[in-house]
Amino acid sequence: MYNSDQPLRNNAVNNLTYLTGYPAHLHDQVQQLIDDEKLGTYLLKRYPTVHQINNDRAVYEYCQALKNTYLKKSPPLSKVVFDQSIQVMKHALGQHTSVSRVHGKKLKNKREIRIASVFKNTPEAFLKMIVVHELAHIKEMNHNKAFYQLCVHMEPEYHQLEFDLRLYLLHLDHFGELYPADSFQQG
Ligand SMILES: [Zn+2]
Question: What domain of life is recorded for the organism (predicted)?
């Protein structure tokens, strides 16, 4: 559908900043959805419900379970938290911290995952996409081909989910919340 290895380019033609780097025909389709006010309908049809993994303990367990399935031999995660200070796009859909720490006389790699708090109230598919993205960085620091191959290995729909997540962020900007914060029973 598109080549995620393409370098990002600025597109000043329209305001679809979340879709920078995607082909023009997708911009047109999305702009049409926005103009027709059908972006929310599109998203709700695909993703009718939100997850309930909305605290740090739950999201740690969620990450750990995925890591144990796909990256069993990598060093354990020291910490997984929701972080209000992270702006999703500024940090390329997540934030990756690898803190080197002196433990006794050994230098230990402390692997933390910080997830933008916007993911507290999203469909599970979006949370999974961002967690998969962060886990893939354990093995690949850069957004290169191997990185995306690993993402797709953990979540075959990775690219579609990343695209739809960008649509969701567009929806937040244009129309506000799609999923009421106090309602976990939708659809
Ligand atoms: Zn990344």
Answer: Bacteria
Residue list, CB under 5 A from ion ligand 1:
92
The domain spans of the chain are: 24-175
Can you tell me whether residue 40 is helix, strand or coil? Answer: helix
Cα of 66 vs centre of ligand 1, distance in Å, is 17
Distance (Å) from CA 52 to ligand 1 centroid = 24
Residue 127 alpha carbon to ligand 1 centre in Å: 14
Q: Tens digits of per-residue pLDDT, 116-159? A: 999 999 999 999 999 999 999 888 888 889 999 999 999 999 99
pLDDT digits (tens, 9 = 90+) for 39-86: 999 999 999 999 999 999 999 999 999 999 999 998 889 999 999 888
CA–centroid distance, residue 125 to ligand 1 (Å): 17
Helices marked H in the chain: 24-35, 39-46, 56-70, 124-139, 145-154, 158-175
Strand partners, 112: 79, 97
